[in-house]
Each structure stands twice: as structure tokens, then as C-alpha cells.
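Annotated sample (chain length 151).
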Amino acid sequence: MTITATTDAALEASQPTPTTSTQETVQAPRTGRPARRTFTAEYKRRIVAEYEQAPSGQKGRVLRREGLYDSSVKQWRAQIEAGTLGTVSKRRPRAGQSPEQARIAELEKQISKLESDAARKDKVIADRDAALEVMGKGVAFLEALSKKNKG
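Output written by the structure step:
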């Protein structure tokens, strides 16, 4: 009986209580998830040095203590050797753009495309004008020849 009473009490305690509020709270989709960690270049250099100095049986201990994977350390080591650790990569845009910033970027891209299209069309028009001018001179020359032959 004691077990049943404890179980019933536990079930009642675990049941959600109904809310009387008619307003629902909206949560972000990543609420409750851990945030992605970022590491400074100094930290990466320190961990790579510590990892490399550790004896072969102790390397895993360094990774577990820091909560890292060996692939991260390998990637950081490659970046150090290439001299790219600590440099800013320009190929990946910032993830946290505001709607206004995203709209501005979209409009700037559109302006750039329109300007390049206009420049290309101006060149085509200039080429056609030059071709018409040459054809006009050719026609004038042929007319002059025909008048000379008639007369």
C-alpha cells in the first residue's frame, strides 16, 4: 500500500497543472539547447600544444577534460601550420543578421547585378553604333563608286 500511495503522489506531482492564462509564450526554436562554443586563437594554440606534449596514453584525458574531439585539435593544428589560425574567414557570412541587414545585403547585391547588366548593355550599344558607322561609310563608298561608273 505504501508503494502505491507513493506512486500515486509521484504521478500527481509530475502531472502538469493547467494554466489559467490565455496568452501563450512563444519560445525560440533553439531554446533549451546548449549554445555553440567558440574558442579564441590563444586557447586553440594552448590546447594543441598541451595535446602534443601529452604522452600517447594521456591525450584522451586532455580531450575529455576540455570536452573536445580529436578532429577539432587536428583541424586547429592544420590551421596553425598553414598560418591561418586567428584570421577571419570571409567565405561564411555572419549568422546573426537582422532583417534590415539582410534586406540591405539583398539590395546591394541587386544593385551590383543591375550595374553590371547596364555596363554590358552600354558596351553592346557602343559596338552596334560602331558597326553602323562602318556600314554607313561602306554604303557611301559604294554609292560614290556607282555614281563614278555611271557618269
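Annotation: The radius of gyration is 36 Å.
Annotation: Helices lie at 2-14, 41-53, 59-66, 70-82, 99-150.
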